[in-house]
Amino acid sequence: MTLVKRIRAALLQNVGLKIVSFGAALLVYSTVHGAQEAQRTIVVDIVGLAPPSTANRVLVSPLPARARVTIRGPKNMVNDLHSDDLGALQVDMRKATDTRVEMTPALVHVPTGVTVEQIDPPWLDLVWEERITRDVPVQVSVVGTPASAYMVKGAPFAEPSMVRVSGPKSEVLVLQHLRAEGFDVSGLTEGRHTRLLSIDRPPGRVELESRSVQVFADVAREISERPFPRLKVAIVGQPRAKSSPAEVDVHLSCPPEQLRSLRAEQLVPRVTVDSQEKTGSVLLPVLVEVQHCEATVTPSEVVVRW
User: Fold this and answer.
1) Closest CA to 140 of 191, 187, 192, 196
2) Is the full-model pTM beyond 0.70?
3) Cα torsion at 251, 257, 262, 268 (round to 10°)?
4) CA-CA-CA-CA torsion for 96, 98, 100, 106, nearest 10 degrees?
5) Tens digit of pLDDT for each residue in 214-261?
6) Which DSSP string do the residues of 44-71 spell out, in sequence order?
7) Cβ-contact 301, 286 below 8 angstroms
8) CB-based contacts of 78, cutoff 8 Å, min separation 6
């Protein structure tokens, strides 16, 4: 008999018994191997159960996002467990008075046969503050540039001008203002313009009652100013009348391109006498009219005699 035939015969002899023996060996191995104890550390989330709003208390100490849970048990069970199987550690803070919470094994959901050996951190220190409410002014800035020859008149203003905030007393009391996003005036021309702008979230644990405000910005034509001193007052209605003083100073606020082209002889301060009496005197306002300009006259009134 050749060597190959002898090996084949040996393998096929009592083949059924050999298969049963091999299966039994596997069963014994898995039983012994699975019965071995193992230890493993799993990272799980921490979830805080917040107190009701009526408690008027705010947690100001940081709450860890995760904890390390060390478990012990049969190796096959321990190896099959993951953070989702254990679930999050729910820390009960609803009383809003506890300053330390113990991280006990009862917080961890493990199957029968598995025990919790350790939780890191073993406890949480909690610091609480009184919650207060306060109205804080909203500050708005300008970004961009209006159309050529136009300017932003005054500062943009919010409506409402104040927004209610709430949070820890130490943070709310030092909050001077809330900042809204910038009001973009790029390319705007004359008129009042409106934007709904969001409010930047304040730092810390301060909460806003409203996250946006209506903001208004006024855009006007760009203005330059120029004085025109000692202009003679013209009297209408009484050719022989004289004014006291005979000259006034005129101050003009106009668009720059218009003001540059104006000359003093083009400006005529005047008063109008309506009386038909042959003699008399009257105190009259001095008028200066220039289109698209605002004129200030000093003195604004003169005495006219005839």
Assistant:
1) 196
2) no
3) -50
4) -90
5) 999 999 988 899 999 999 999 999 988 999 999 999 999 998 888 989
6) EEEEEEPPPGGG-EEE-S---SEEEEEE
7) yes
8) 38, 39, 40, 71, 72, 114
